[in-house]
Amino acid sequence: MSKFKKKKGGELPAISTASLPDIVFMLLFFFMVATEMRQNTLMIENKLPAADQVEKLDKKDLVMYIYAGKPSQRFESQYGTESRIQLNDKFADVSEIAAFISAERASKREELVPFLTTALKVDSDANMGLVSDIKQELRKVNALKINYTTRKGDALSGLKN
Amino acid sequence: MAKRSAPEVNAGSMADIAFLLLIFFLVTTTIETDSGLSRKLPPLDDTQQEDVIIKKKNIFQLQVNKNNALLLNTGGEEKVIEIKDLRKATVDFLDNGGGVGEDACRNCQGNRNPKSSDNFDKAIVSLQNDRGAKYDVYIAIQNEILAAYNQLRNREFVKAYPNLDMNFVEADKKYSDPRTSSSEKERLKEKLEAIKIMIPQKFSEAEPKKSN
């Protein structure tokens, strides 16, 4: 009697994995869209100080980054342990900042130039002399909007006294 | 003739390829946005400027030495101050309202010490640091001074616009948010400007001195 044919074995049918690529592709597209490649390889130590009165730095294309800090271990033998400035992918001198700013300005559309902000990513162990030199250079080329990039956190807890 | 169908391509490895790409993008992704303290540098001006006479009581002078100690000089006294006490000291100074006559401060709630600042508009915070001072100390001081200004601006903002149900910092954040509609921005801007005029950030940084 075929009507009451017993089910063969207890086997579960295999779950179809045909939609797996679709799911993975969906994730893939999300990350492709959300990805921003790191522009600069850091050659310095860059542990940012903490602050809590921060403002977000939107519009990444309108930001110029200046890094400063101690050369990381690989470069210590070559560049010493004194804090240095890094522009793009190489160490730079304070006097090179002016050229860097004008190069950045030239690469942007003219009407956006007044909105450019300079983000100072300075290591918390750096001394103020270096930062003041950078600021002085920025004043000379009239790049007055700056942002001290920080971590979010309690500014006082990080201080070691 | 029998109909020959094209042999099906085995798509089993498709998932593997996609996973490989996925992992690559996962690793290279940085979604964080930077945040920090925004400041504006004073323009470099070579022309000789007239010295402005400022009453000593209206200056809140901070000095950082190369050992990262902080010296405060205000209201006729000099003292060493801890960074954790700086916020309160700054608020007390700004909010003092010691002015009389046309310098009187209507919105100040301080203890009206005649030796301290006249009003929000007159009060100046000045910071000078040694070249040897550490950057994180400098940021902490900047942060505390900004916090003091924000605290007072919040208070006045809530007092002036109680039905808005947000404070100055929240309103400012909303103003700079690209999702806020332009009509709302227009309204917020007006209010933010009014508070900024009432409590201007008069924060001057002297050029650092060399340590000997």
UniProtKB/TrEMBL annotation, chain A:
It is found in: Cell membrane. It holds the Pfam family ExbD. One of its GO terms (biological process) is protein transport. Keywords: Cell membrane, Membrane, Protein transport, Transmembrane, Transmembrane helix, Transport. One of its GO terms (cellular component) is plasma membrane. The chain crosses the membrane at residues 12-34. One of its GO terms (molecular function) is transmembrane transporter activity. It is a single-pass membrane protein; Single-pass type II membrane protein. Belongs to the ExbD/TolR family. This is Biopolymer transport protein ExbD. It comes from Formosa algae. The lineage of its organism: Bacteria, Pseudomonadati, Bacteroidota, Flavobacteriia, Flavobacteriales.
From TrEMBL, chain B:
It is a single-pass membrane protein; Single-pass type II membrane protein. Keywords: Cell membrane, Membrane, Protein transport, Transmembrane, Transmembrane helix, Transport. One of its GO terms (cellular component) is plasma membrane. Belongs to the ExbD/TolR family. It is found in: Cell membrane. This is Biopolymer transporter ExbD. InterPro entries: ExbD. One of its GO terms (biological process) is protein transport. It comes from Formosa algae. GO terms for molecular function: transmembrane transporter activity. Pfam families: ExbD.
